[in-house]
Amino acid sequence: xxxxxxxxxxxxxxxxxxxxxxxxxxxxxxxxxxxxxxxxxxxxxxxxxxxxxxxxxxxxxxxxxxxxxxxxxxxxxxxxxxxxxxxxxxxxxxxxxxxxxxxxxxxxxxxxxxxxxxxxxxxxxxxxxxxx
Length: 132
Ligand SMILES: [Zn+2]
Ligand SMILES: [Zn+2]
What we know:
The two termini are 27 Å apart. The radius of gyration is 14 Å and the shape is globular. It has one helix spanning 29-35; strands spanning 3-6, 13-16, 23-26, 39-45, 49-53, 58-62, 67-72, 78-83, 90-94, 108-110. The chain has one domain (3-114): Metal Binding Protein, Guanine Nucleotide Exchange Factor, Chain A. It has a seven-stranded mixed β-sheet with strand order 6-7-8-9-4-3-10. Strands 1-2-5 form a three-stranded antiparallel β-sheet, with no helix packed on it. The protein is built from one helix and ten strands. It is mainly beta. It comes from Parvularcula dongshanensis. One of its GO terms (molecular function) is carbon-sulfur lyase activity.
């Protein structure tokens, strides 16, 4: 079943064609700064992510030498993460941007060693200190 989603203001709309991969909740310091707490996303093949509307409102911020983060320039919603490498096969899509119900659940918490002190990790999903 295909999934769809969008940003807070609704200008950026996308769909995911085909199967989705692993759902991770990332507790790294960059994801905390970017999202407000931690950032949960689902991995999908690059060519499975189709921007249906608002492509001109989607900007990419190079958060490190190897990765960039896609966001809506109107509302600021944190939507996507991908490796800058052209050959990178996958893009991470924010599960909070997906229309409900997503049918997804977190498979793995990553970078828990960097977790902020103001929240707790709940649930039974496995945890990895690094990138898992
Ligand atoms: Zn928006
Ligand atoms: Zn992260």
